[in-house]
Design goal:
This protein is mainly α. The protein has helices at about 1-15, 20-35, 40-50, 55-70, 75-85, 90-105, 110-130, 130-145, 155-160, 165-170, 175-195, 215-240, 245-260, 270-300, 305-315, 320-335, 340-355, 360-375, 385-390, 395-420, 420-430. The protein is built from 21 helices and no strands. The relative contact order is 0.15.
């Protein structure tokens, strides 16, 4: 009964417009009072949710993304992506997806990806003749690759909550991330004639520029020092030279040095602003994490995992179907909440259920994180939809009308991970 009351309070607070961090914290506080737990435990639990060496990685990856944006290093990635796939039918749409995949290997944040890639490519795609609704939608969808291809802030968060190997999660996300990007590019190719409105030659063919090998090589040389960031991170983790947290420090320091002294696209006097921007983003994420951790602890205290497991097993004894039901739960929750609070509130409980059912923790974790990320591009609270609608200067309804094919693609990737565990477990098994 108390569990239902806690969820009811949380939902009511959300409906009346209370920010989600405070909604989570207040509902947790009310339940503590109802259970006779000292109020001081709220602060203790909030601090405990952040007192983790693994969580320390999050600020550094956020800082890396902020440096990349301010130092205009993203432009080098976009130009290199353009030289590789810009001539293919689908042109800048493919560039959009590939650039997001490159950027994902550096920042690990979908919001940072959206803001950086969107600000550069949405105006360019509109000018070239792409339907602005499609342009905003594919930018939002490609940004969702950010937390899947390592390094991933969401994987770090999940690992800190459940104890699953961060390195295992990182390597487990590589193939699903590549498959997701590939599927988005296939859709862009198929939909091109419908979403592209002008710039055709006298024969009616769509104009596309093909870069020479010399031009591809030049763009690669300009981007290679940026592309080496994910390589340093993954090789360092794979060889045991540093942890995921230490990799975040290395990535931030490397990006700062590149921006200040090599490319000279960031000035010393701008460092304060970059640090402030990163601190603001980090503060929002960590406060949400602190309150949501308390909520999750209260669910555990009230035996939520056992209740859920009992309810699920009463429906079916097939463990794979139980997994699918949990995926659907995360997908539905994504319509109403951002991915971070969903993970913090429910990941520990669902992880314990997965362990009891004998699931591979990396397979389960990666699949569930991708399922949660679908919420970032679904209305009514899809953060990436709001970000890209604002950049494209269109209404929320317009981007929603164009996003559904990409939602279907992302759910397809989730189902592929569910059906074929080696898509997730193969690389961790080989490389770790």
């Amino acid at each position: 009964m108390n569990i239902l009351l806690m969820f009811a309070i949380f939902i009511v607070l959300l409906l009346i417009g209370v920010p989600i961090s405070f909604s989570i914290g207040i509902s947790s506080l009310v339940m503590m009072l109802a259970e006779g737990i000292p109020v001081t435990m709220l602060i203790t639990k909030m601090f405990g949710g952040l007192d983790s060496f693994t969580i320390l990685a999050i600020p550094f990856y956020i800082l890396t993304g902020a440096i990349m944006n301010s130092g205009n290093l993203t432009g080098r990635l976009v130009r290199f992506a353009d030289s590789l796939v810009g001539h293919i039918k689908g042109g800048l749409a493919h560039v959009n997806v590939l650039a997001s995949m490159f950027f994902a290997g550096i920042s690990g944040s979908s919001t940072a990806d959206s803001a950086s890639i969107g600000a550069m490519l949405i105006p360019a795609m509109e000018e070239e003749g792409y339907d602005i609704r499609f342009t905003a939608a594919i930018t939002a969808a490609s940004s969702s690759i950010g937390p899947i291809i390592p390094p991933s802030i969401m994987f770090i968060l999940y690992s800190s909550l459940t104890g699953v190997s961060v390195a295992g999660m990182f390597f487990g996300g590589i193939l699903p991330g590549i498959i997701l990007g590939g599927c988005q590019m296939v859709y862009a190719y198929v939909a091109y004639d419908r979403v592209f409105t002008h710039k055709r030659d006298e024969r009616g063919n769509i104009e596309r520029k093909r870069f020479s090998m010399a031009e591809v090589w030049r763009s690669f040389k300009k981007a290679v020092l940026v592309l080496v960031v994910p390589l340093i991170i993954m090789v360092g983790i794979m060889t045991g030279k540093f942890t995921a947290t230490e990799a975040g420090v290395v990535a931030a320091a490397y990006s700062m040095v590149m921006s200040l002294f090599v490319f000279k696209t960031l000035r010393v006097r701008e460092i304060g602003r970059v640090l402030l921007d990163a601190a603001k983003s980090c503060g929002m994420v960590l406060f949400l994490l602190a309150t949501a951790t308390t909520f999750g602890n209260m669910l555990t205290l009230m035996n939520f995992p056992k209740l859920v497991l009992g309810a699920l097993t009463s429906l079916t004894s097939n463990s794979r179907i139980l997994f699918l039901i949990m995926i659907l739960f995360y997908f539905i929750m994504g319509f109403f909440m951002d991915g971070t609070p969903i993970l913090v509130m429910f990941a520990p409980a669902f992880h314990s259920i997965a362990v009891s059912l004998g699931f591979d923790p990396i397979w389960f974790g990666v699949t569930m994180v991708i399922a949660v990320l679908v919420g970032g591009i679904t209305p009514p609270v899809g953060v990436l939809l709001f970000v890209n609608a604002k950049i494209a200067k269109i209404s929320f309804d317009q981007i929603v009308n164009a996003i559904w094919p990409f939602v279907a693609i992302m759910m397809l990737v989730v189902l592929l991970c569910w059906l074929f565990p080696p898509l997730v477990t193969f690389l961790p098994g080989v490389l770790l």
